[in-house]
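In the current project phase, the collection of sequences with tokenised folds has grown. One resulting record follows, to show the layout:
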Amino acid sequence: MIPNMVNRREVLTGATVVIGITTIAGCSGSNQPADEQTDGQNQTTEQEQEQDQENSTQNQSLTNFELNWVEFSYTISSGLSSEIRATNTTEQGTDPNEVNIRINVYNGEERIGSDNQWETVPATYHQDFELEIPEVSETSETTIEDASELIVQGKERDEEYIDLRTISGDELRGRVSE
């Protein structure tokens, strides 16, 4: 019976170490050099970029940033969430740049939800923006079925917002159900 107890302890210890490392890695921040991605992340990012370009309207671009990809999730209680990756395209050795990424969700002409986030991003690095719109959820007055359009906007310090990506309501619903 003692050998079985030791094996269980070893398994539990191993699982705890893996969970701990995963948690630390997930909480360590998402500001990374754009060229330090794993092969799996590159493949996924390339597929997502192709899908984004095929299914949404690319509007304008920021002076020092490139919008890499946009992902969505939707839960009954939390509502609509988005993860957006932007890369600072300035040359290595230049100062970091500040950028604000904002998403607006519309039902016709009425804006039904919005969120934005400012980040300072070093040259050649990318930054993930996690935006949430709890106003669009199953527990609020408006659901994802009410969304007719989602617009991703961006601006750099002392500039006006510009439309970076426009996504139809149908595409949005299709992407969160995948």
